Amino acid sequence: MEDRVVVRRVGASEALFAKAKAVIPGGVNSPVRAYRAVGGVPPFVAEACGAEVVDADGNRYVDYVMSWGALIAGHAEPSVVAAVQAAAARGTSFGAPTAGEVELAAAITRAFPAVERVRLVSSGTEAVMSALRVARAATKRDVVVKFDGHYHGHSDAMLVNAGSGLATFGVPSSPGVPAALAALTVTLPFNNRDALGAAFRERGREIAAVIVEPVMGNMGVVPAEPGFLEAVRDETARAGAILIFDEVITGMRVGPGGAQTRFGVRPDLSCLGKIIGGGLPLAAFGGRADLMGLVAPEGPVYQAGTLSGNPVAVAAGIAMMKLLERNGVYDDLDRRAATLCAGVLDAARNAGIPLVANRVGSMFSFFFTGGAVRSAADARRADAARFARFHAGMLERGFWLAPSAFEAWFLSLAHTDEHVARTVTAANEVFRSS
Length: 434
What we know:
- It is a single chain.
- This protein has helices at residues 11-23, 78-90, 99-111, 124-139, 179-182, 193-203, 228-239, 258-263, 289-292, 311-323, 329-350, 376-380, 384-396, 417-433; strands at 45-49, 52-55, 60-63, 117-121, 143-147, 160-161, 168-169, 171-172, 185-188, 207-212, 215-216, 222-223, 242-247, 269-272, 283-287, 356-360, 363-367, 399-400, 409-410.
- It is of the alpha/beta class.
- The strands form five sheets. An eight-stranded mixed β-sheet has the order 4-15-14-13-10-5-9-7, sandwiched between helices. It has a four-stranded mixed β-sheet with strand order 1-2-3-18. The protein has a three-stranded antiparallel β-sheet with strand order 16-17-19, with helices on one face.
């Protein structure tokens, strides 16, 4: 059987990229979009519907980025679009309380048992920044523990790399981050209970909070191993530190109630985003009622946002939350994701290519490596150059993947069995030709 490759048109995207670079740093408004990790010109999206996007050149792709996981129902889902249109017709921003804010907050607290009270914000970075401030105020401590490879937005406290050794204070990973602030962040290897225990034995009285992605999503998908989240919960409880789950990606993605419900571990604070905004800019932080009572104007911890609780974004979030209450939604997503991962793994095996798949529900990653991937260090050993070739081959065949070896794939309710079968067929062709 001949490979079915259609030569992509790129002229319009090339022209737009050239114009963008003159007025936008790097030509993009978020670095990974520049395609530097995989090469080539980033396609500029013109429109999208369901599981597919169309770029400025008219090329059509099956989308596995799904706005980085936010679009669990697919692009332009009718109920979400209708809710947005109706809300926008009533006014796009008020800077005042609305009934919609209350409805969405109530839906979030119903879905996440650990979230007793919640504050809406506009981005995941803002949610994390605010949750850390609450944790530091509650404990009257300054040190925060995070894990290598976990991404919690671009606030100064979270833009740190690990130093040398198993458990070290951080050093700035970006110019503009003060070294003194980065030094208040300790970075540990993920899924390493020994390092976690050592850090708490040595510095437990200084630790305000541990923040963790229950499923790592920005070094590829790496789930917490059985018992690890329970160990983090135990250590924080003994030390009087706050446990923060960053569920900006996993919240409503890996199941109703997010990873905390799936894994049965209750954090003190949670950071949510993406899906709860229905694809519009909206996020939230919430948790124990006593901790959230510290937030202004009820308490002394200041947090504010002119566009927080934006009525259009809130309307999209409400529509999305209602859609996900349907029976069988997550079963369908899980089944299709399992079929896709198994098919791609078989294709790689038949071609003699080492490949590992990590999956939790409808988020997954493929690593071009022969060994298990259970940490950021394992992920970094994967063959990024081979991924770049795979990415190019899939793009030519009409499949839109995240332009980095260290990002997740996401399925939506709009993906069909046919989409999955076509994806596996394309992967077979790419592997045979590589």
